[in-house]
Amino acid sequence: MSAQKLVMMANQIAQFFESQPDSPPADQTAEHLKKFWDPRMRAALIAHFAAGGEGMSPTALAAAQVLADAQRKAKIGDLG
After folding, report:
1. What proportions of the chain, in percent to the nearest 5, are helix, strand and coil?
2. pLDDT digits over 26-74, tens only?
3. Sequence spans of domains, the chain
4. Contact 7, 55 (CB under 8 A)
């Protein structure tokens, strides 16, 4: 799947969670991506984020940061 398509989908999900009052929209967006996106899709989105995140909304960028941080922590945990 193209980065452009992943960005569009992430932005749509982020926009939905921006309208929800429950918790921070970036956290909810990241949780949704963890639950429902294939690991390869998440990895591609994180890679796009790491390359500058062109086209990503502020909430989608923040969600990608949450995912990247979680991925980094998981890799560190694998080393121990």
Report:
1. 80, 0, 20
2. 999 999 999 999 999 999 999 999 999 999 999 999 999 999 999 988 8
3. 3-79
4. yes
